Amino acid sequence: MKRVALFPSAFHPSLGGVEELTGQLAVHLQKRGVKSLICVNQWPRSLPAVDRWNGFAVRRFPFRLPEYGVKAKVSFYLSRHRVMRGVVRALEHFRAEAVHVQCMSSNAWYAYGAAAVLNLPLIVSIQGERTMDAQGIYEKSPLYNRILCRVLTQADQVTACSAATLQDIKSFVGGGIAQKSKVIYNGVGGEAFEDGVKWPHPKPYLLAIGRLVPQKGFRQLLEAYASANLGLMDLMIAGDGPDAGALRQLAAEFGISERVHFPGRAGRAMVQALMRGCSGLVVPSLREPMGIVALEGMAAGKPLLVSAVDGLKEIAKEGPWCRRVPPGNVAALSRGLQWIEALGVLGPLEKQQEYAQKFLWERLTDEYLGVYSTALEGY
Known about the structure:
Structural class: alpha/beta
Order of helices and strands: EHEEEHEHEHHHEHEEHEHEHEHEHEHHH
Number of helices: 15
CATH topology of the largest domain: Rossmann fold
Strand content: 15-25%
Number of domains: 2
CATH class of the largest domain: Alpha Beta
Strand order of the largest sheet: 3-4-2-1-5-6-7-8
CATH architecture of the largest domain: 3-Layer(aba) Sandwich
């Protein structure tokens, strides 16, 4: 196979785990001689319909579904056939040989439809949609759940970012996908291991990175940091999202505003600089299907403090440089912060970096190529 259409639920200029997965997969597939076309929802609508990202073609379509009231339903029924025809034409022009969905949202319905029209194999990679969607769409939408079941049932191959995520999907959909599903963890790029510029901050700091939403556990982290009464280390919480204002207000209420810093939206270079400069990484998620940021912390050779939750437990193993705490347990999180401060400022930890090598994208891409090969059988 030489051409695959990737359908992520979100992509550049948005930042996040799915965006990172899709970009890394496209880059490493290209190194194996496989070209990618990236098809994504045109949101906001002001983004160009035809674009390029790092040399890859990006096509944006208004992937509407009949949700959120009368206006949305009318827009869907007026546009769905036109949008589907546009997707099909784009895949035909690209000469796609397979369709691969990364994280199911409205993108999945159109990817499924186009694959059926063109008789192409459909691969779906589940990323914890049922528990980690910021709007909780799968907790309140019967339509999205019906689409989830339909697309997964009809897919030729299904991957999940952790065993916990795969088990959740099997329980939801039923045992029918067992024979066509496997775990492929998300990965880390080789650049995460490299030395380079460190984030300029006058004091040692603890780092947390992620979308500022409740399930990431940053509110509990602020409370834990306030109660830990650390003598040396500031706290850096990087990212953006709907909780940004509330988190700043909470820091003020705890009296720690001068020691807690919110550098905002973090692109790839900024993430790497923050990782290199920190004294330890904290992943306090209340739910987490896998946790790319934990891998990036290990690749940078940093001590880790993580929640013992979902797929995060599968990749962050307890040891001298990694501690796990019950999710949402402020007291345990506070003790963990004190543990990192007691370690002091360390150089890169070789054991952490050695473990993270298992999750290099070069290795994981080989697994995806095997899935593609299996999906192509019979076509």
